[in-house]
Amino acid sequence: MQINRLSDALGAEITGINVTKVSAGEIEAILDAFYEHQVIVFRDQTLTPEQHIAFSAHFGPHEIHISKKFLLEDHPEVLVLSNRKANGEYIGVENAGDYWHSDLSYMDKPSLGSLLYALEVPPEGGDTEWANQYTAYETLPEETKKRIDELKARHTFNRTRNPRVHVPDHAKKGAVERYAKVSPDDALHPVVRTHPVTGRKALFVSPRFTIGIEGLPEEEAQELLDELFDHMAKPEFVYHHKWRLGDLLLWDNRCLAHLACRGIPEGQIRHMHRTTVSGDIPF
Q1: What pLDDT is attached to residue 9?
Q2: Which of 274, 252, 241 is nearest to 202 (CA)?
Q3: What is the pLDDT of residue 161?
Q4: Domain that holds residue 106
Q5: Which residues on adjacent β-strands are paired with residue 123?
Q6: E strand or H helix that includes residue 82
Q7: In Å, how far are 45, 209, 256 from 18, measured between CA atoms?
Q8: Residue 13 and residue 11: Cα distance in Å, rounded?
Q9: Which is catalytic among the residues 155, 208, 271, 274?
Q10: Catalytic residue at 101?
């Protein structure tokens, strides 16, 4: 088992390990690396859904995604992310991660993290980026830190209520009713959250899910969010991941934002399985 740093911003790869046969000592070492580097890439894995689910359980209980359409049959812990079609319809979430976000921040208890496994990768395109929100917070002007430290932001899954995002063409029909049914309520979370393990502060807003700030006039709230969104993904905070077949990537949603870079050529397939680990209430 060898750990190699992937970028100055964040991230490490772990080689020489089969995640289907990990010892308690190896899990401890993985957790230490996870808290230090925020993103861990396990290379050259060959996993069944059952093995993927079992390894994920080392990090906490599973979170079942609120959108049930693309859960893997007989394995609801696994969400399918894919641009493959069958009978004219996508067999997985095609537009996942198309704006900077932290997974499930629209829930009262956002996820601890996710484990994404690459079953098929295109020769080009389909990359993913992660932005270090510890660093994003730490590099804000002191005046801005004081302004936001006690604020709370509203998060929603509902794309039709967020002017910064769009509903994909293939999903527009019935979108208002569908989103209202799947996720009817907003979640309210600190703009700056404290990591429950490391104790470090991180920005916890995103253009995909954050739509307002509690207690601020709408215009002032949107101006502040625009300022934070412009800052949160500066190049020096970002790790860019080019997927390889067999990559299993674990990331910490409590201190990171991420983005699907897309750009997959016509006819190429990106097919992945994702498990998610339940988190706690941000503070």
Answers
A1: 98
A2: 252
A3: 84
A4: 2-277
A5: none
A6: strand 75-82
A7: 7, 35, 26
A8: 7
A9: 274
A10: yes
Residue 65 known to be catalytic: no
> What is the Cα Rg of the chain in Å?
18
Evaluate whether residue 10 is within a structural domain: yes
Task: Please pick, among 37, 52, 65, 101, the residue that the annotation labels catalytic.
Answer: 101
Model confidence pTM above 0.90: yes
Q: Does residue 239 contact residue 79 with C-beta atoms inside 8 Å? A: no
Low-confidence ranges of the chain (pLDDT < 50): none
**282, part of any domain:** no
Is 103 a catalytic site residue? yes
CATH (domain of 150): 3.60.130.10
Q: If you search the block for the tokens 């936001």, which residue do you land on? A: 148
**Cα angle value 183/189/190 (rounded, 5°):** 165
Q: What is the pLDDT of residue 67?
A: 77
Domain membership of residue 66 (yes or no) is yes
Which of 254, 278, 153 is CA-nearest to residue 201? 254
* Catalytic entry in 103, 127, 186, 247: 103
Number of domains, the chain: 1
| Catalytic-role residue among 193, 254, 258, 273 | 258
pLDDT computed for residue 167 by the predictor:
79
Which amino acid is present at 100?
A: W
**226 C-beta neighbours (distance < 10 Å), count:** 12
pLDDT for 169:
63
Give 50's Cβ-side CA count (13 Å radius): 1
b/e map 6-31, b = 16+ CB within 10 Å: bbebbbbbbeebebeebeeebeebbe
Determine the pLDDT at residue 86. Answer: 93
- pLDDT at 176 (0 to 100): 65
Contact 145/190 with Cβ under 8 angstroms?
A: no
pLDDT digits (tens, 9 = 90+) for 199-210: 999 999 999 999
For 185-237, list the strands marked E by DSSP: 187-190, 192-194, 201-203, 210-213
